[in-house]
Amino acid sequence: MFFHLCLVFKKSVEVLDTTLRDGSQGANISFTLNDKIKIALMLDELGVDYIEGGWPGSNPKDEEFFKEIKKYSLSKAKIAAFGSTKRKDSSVNEDTSLNSIIKADVDVAVIFGKSWSLHVTEVLKVTKQENLDIVYDSIKYLKSHGLKVIFDAEHFYQGFKEDPEYAIEVIKTAEAAGADVIALADTNGGTPPFEIFEITKKVREILNVKLGVHTHNDIGCGVANALMAVKAGVRHVQGTINGIGERTGNADLVQIIPTLMLKMGFNVLNGRESLKKLREVSRLIYEILGLPPNPYQPYVGDNAFAHKAGVHVDAVMKVPRAYEHIDPSLVGNDRKFVISELSGTANLVSYLQKIGIVVDKKDERLKRALNKIKELETKGYSFDVGPASAILITLRELNMYENYINVEYWKVINENSGLSIGIVKVNSQLEVAEGVGPVNAIDKALRMALQRVYPEISDVKLIDYRVILPSEIKNTESVVRVTIEFTDGKINWRTEGVSKSVVEASVMALIDGLDYYLQLKKTLKVLPDKYIT
Amino acid sequence: MFFHLCLVFKKSVEVLDTTLRDGSQGANISFTLNDKIKIALMLDELGVDYIEGGWPGSNPKDEEFFKEIKKYSLSKAKIAAFGSTKRKDSSVNEDTSLNSIIKADVDVAVIFGKSWSLHVTEVLKVTKQENLDIVYDSIKYLKSHGLKVIFDAEHFYQGFKEDPEYAIEVIKTAEAAGADVIALADTNGGTPPFEIFEITKKVREILNVKLGVHTHNDIGCGVANALMAVKAGVRHVQGTINGIGERTGNADLVQIIPTLMLKMGFNVLNGRESLKKLREVSRLIYEILGLPPNPYQPYVGDNAFAHKAGVHVDAVMKVPRAYEHIDPSLVGNDRKFVISELSGTANLVSYLQKIGIVVDKKDERLKRALNKIKELETKGYSFDVGPASAILITLRELNMYENYINVEYWKVINENSGLSIGIVKVNSQLEVAEGVGPVNAIDKALRMALQRVYPEISDVKLIDYRVILPSEIKNTESVVRVTIEFTDGKINWRTEGVSKSVVEASVMALIDGLDYYLQLKKTLKVLPDKYIT
User: Fold this and answer.
1) What is the pLDDT of residues B476-492, one digit of tens each?
2) What is the C-alpha to C-alpha distance for residues A104 and B150, in angstroms, rounded to an integer?
3) Hey, are the CB atoms on B501 and A220 less than 8 Å from each other?
4) By the CB < 8 Å criterion, does B221 face chain A?
5) What total number of domains does chain A contain?
6) Largest CA distance in chain A
């Protein structure tokens, strides 16, 4: 009861995730519609307050997203559509940007407007008064359509430094027009943290509306600037997962959220349980983008709680808080020791639990499995991105594995005609198939041989396929890691293969994917009710 | 004259670089003696005040460094040796740590001591008074040997929060013993920026000695925390190049220094000319470590001044300061335009400019090229990730393309033996090669055929290879996009190929990569002096 009261009285900071909008403006960043849906569902499960899904006026892919996401029921997050204030030469009723937000049929609109007088006169080329009218009319119009409106004051901090009266006038206008949140944006990311604090504090004294902040990392202060703004009174933070975004990126929510909760005492997301999902969410975004995770990333990186062997390791076991700023498990991460076989068994135990297998984490068979997994990791595997392959190794050690697929021989021939021929000898059966690429050809031949005996395999579909070079030295002789995600329509699982040949690595991951499904269906006769990704 | 006076009166912040000491404690970081010498000379040229060369008591490689570096005359930097305060059970005269600093025969000693009472009683296991004596005696001893002494107060901020009186007593003791600089360390990197500011300010009011700061990046605030400490009165900053270091790393000097100079008005290094070397220094450290440079790194990353949206590109050409927080050339970096489905001809124009081609953005040929590019993007291409392939299309439209590589036929055979055979008929020559995978096999066969005629191709190396499925529906029949990054040691370029076959897509990207290089070298006879990635 007392605990409950505490939670009620704890101040909250709401989170707007713009991975799908501002994040997608980063170099080398591109999401498919499926990616966007997958990410939105994951963000909702994490507990963010708003998901900025895209800019419906700017491209058809974003418009499709708003249609598609309606088919899902989200538990908490509100979907927000992004856009600009109205054009200078159109009325609100005719304005395509505002109307495409309304057409997106969402509950929340995020619109950005000019608050730096340089931009008003030099870029937008209107008078200061005209810009105030544009801001006022645009917000009023969206409000009149029943939308919650978040107003992003673009380049606010630069604007305030050069022409504070006008910058304030713009956001006062937005407040008067009924904006529900006014987010102060450090659009070019160049404002140092002490200025963010001072300016935000002044604004907090002037306005009554809920204030937000939108920061970028151009001087390496994206995260700190968001924290300083909260310290100055902001209660709404915008950012992206892993800090992806234009130039040096947006503020990284993965880094901001734990500090807000653990060091500043705010209530964020769905409370502490949400924090434990942070590492997983961070990983999935990297994987979708085909990027290797940043091992040095604060809170969630592989090295974030890495300790060297020896005295230090011993000391950290006795007095962890003497060496660690937080308990790594709070953010779903792990203490890592250079010499230790202990780290990881807990991980495996929790994976096995998901498929109905209960094993003690000190079980010798588990330790043997872990040693095999770690050895493979030195060769380019990464347990995080293809856990089903690691589970197969573990099932073997636990004597819970049955041999359903015995591949004796395979061969693929590709040529410039575009066609590939796959030949497979599996379970003593030789099959040949034509495919549009090597993976497709082998996949077809494999299925021809296996489906007769295991008809359940026809339910299995490949839904994602990624290749990266995990090693430091990269050339055409490098080891490649192929990750494949499968689904049977109910559950998803990910496998991986590592080889110097992209074809061989693909074949390995393909076989693991079918094998894993057969182990679940036929050996364990149990299906997890959750994603194992 | 007036300018000169201004410089004289400008306040300075001194920089201690600990790349060679704290940096080398990072995971997967290891420097050879030669590396260390090379880095030290580069840091001296950059203009840092102190180079912390290593911990002579802890390993022989560090001792050798101090001997070797004496053979060089440095223009400005002072070499500093690192160590701990004396052991609790030895006298200063017999203490190996202190004496190895003295033996290193340097001008400056950096020693760290306990300032968090938890560490004093739980880790060091001495009384608080004993620790004060240890600090006092150690500094006195080094001073009596004529050394300048920088005292690093380990875990100072944590110590201050738990036991402020004692933390202050420790640094007052260091001051009384004659320390020249007292650096407050956020050793576990967990202190938020507003606390760093408040605590540092209090210390500044109490002590008279020059204050320094040593921060880590565990909550993503390493850079901001150093800046906040300077704002609170610190005039000595410790960090590493690229932020390498234990766990999530040290504060990144490459990010701190430009903000101190360009945004806070301090005199750092050898003034503004030094800033222009920052990108080069950052690159060299990555190269020595065999790590890919971080394209999102503030100030110096490839994407730090990258613009993607078309309208935006047009505007930044007209009013750069409306979109860029600093002029990129100040830190030796470049503005970059990203080619994508959103971009207009302005992006293409600026790319072409870099390879010496001037075309008007309204040129019809350019519009035709852009239409082709946009059409390909609907088929899965994404030219922001492989712009060189887009340039090849544009060169064809501009009639500036020459046909050097004419592939008539190719074939790859892969099988479970692990070996791949690549067969290529290019420019009427048939070649066959064995490779460890299909891409390697084709790469080898292609080069065999082409290098006789175009020997320059032997300089071209592949440095990155990525595969993703860009299409909405993902299965083994989906289109895959392969992106390859190449280098000739001077410039880098990225190409892409799209096909339902991962092998074909790889072959396309490979051929484009070699073709682009030949166009630059042979047709245009001009090489950009900057990266085109």
Assistant:
1) 667 888 888 898 888 88
2) 61
3) no
4) yes
5) 1
6) 81
Asked if A30 and B290 come within 8 Å (Cβ–Cβ), the reply is no
- Angle of CA points B39, B43, B49, to nearest 5°: 140
DSSP assignment letter at A322: G
Q: Is residue B298 one of the residues assigned to a domain? A: no
Q: Using an 8 Å Cβ cutoff, are A510 and A442 in contact?
A: yes
A153 inside domain: yes
pTM score of the predicted model: 0.75
Q: DSSP string covering B186-243, please?
A: ETTS---HHHHHHHHHHHHHH--SEEEEEEB-TTS-HHHHHHHHHHTT--EEEEBGGG
The domain of B332 spans 306-379
ipTM of predicted complex: 0.75
User: Is residue B89 located within the same domain as residue B37?
Assistant: yes
Q: With DSSP H G I counted as helix, E B as strand and the rest as coil, what are the percentages for chain B, rounded to 5?
A: 45, 20, 35
Of A167-176, A248-257, B115-124, B301-310, which gets the smallest average pLDDT? B301-310
Q: Residues B166-214: pLDDT tens digits?
A: 999 999 999 999 999 999 999 999 999 999 999 999 999 999 999 999 9
**Which among A194, A411, A502 has CB closest to B439?**
A502
Taking all residues of chain B, what is their mean pLDDT, rounded to a whole number? Answer: 89
A226 pLDDT exceeds 50? yes
Strand B50-54 with B14-17, pairing: parallel
Residue B274 and residue B304 in contact, taking contact as beta carbons nearer than 8 Å: no
> Order of strands, edge to edge, in the sheet holding A480-487?
A492-499, A480-487, A461-468, B461-468, B480-487, B492-499
B466 → chain A, closest CA residue: A468
Where does a domain end: B252, B270, B288?
B270
The answer as to whether B116 is a domain residue is yes
CA A326 to chain centre: 22
DSSP, res B117: H
Residue A533 tokens, joined:
């990704």
Tell me, what amino acid is at B393?
Answer: I
Answer yes or no: do B374 and B413 share one domain.
no
CA A153 from chain centre, in angstroms, equals 26
Q: Coil, strand, or helix at residue B256?
A: helix
Residues B368 and B478 in one domain: no
A54 in reach of chain B (CB within 8 A): no
* B350 and B484 inside one domain: no
- Say what the pLDDT of residue A491 is: 82
- Provide the residue type at B137 as one letter: D
Residue B331 lies in a domain: yes
Evaluate if residue A207 carries a pLDDT over 70.
Answer: yes
Same domain, B342 and B225: no
Which helix or strand (DSSP H or E) is residue A211 part of? strand A210-215
* Amino acid symbol at B202: K
* Residue A45 contacts residue A12 (beta carbons within 8 Å): no
User: With contact defined as beta carbons under 8 Å apart, do B413 and B503 qualify?
Assistant: no
**B-chain residue closest to A327, CA distance:** B190
Residue B429's CB is within 10 A of a number of other CB atoms, namely: 14
Q: Does residue B458 sit in the same domain as residue B514?
A: yes
* CA–CA dist A504, A508 (Å, integer): 6
Q: 3-state class of A183 per DSSP?
A: strand
Q: Does A417 touch chain B (CB under 8 A)?
A: no
A chain contacts of residue B474, beta-carbon cutoff 8 Å: 34, 462-465
Q: How far is B230 from chain A (nearest CA, A)?
A: 11
Put simply, the answer to whether B303 touches A248 (Cβ < 8 Å) is yes
Q: Which residues of B touch A264 (CB under 8 A)?
A: 192
Element (H, E) at A8: helix A2-9
Are B327 and B418 members of one domain?
Answer: no
CATH of the domain at B154: 3.20.20.70
A424-430 mean pLDDT: 93
The tokens describing A134, both together, are 């544009």
Residues B493 and B368 in one domain: no
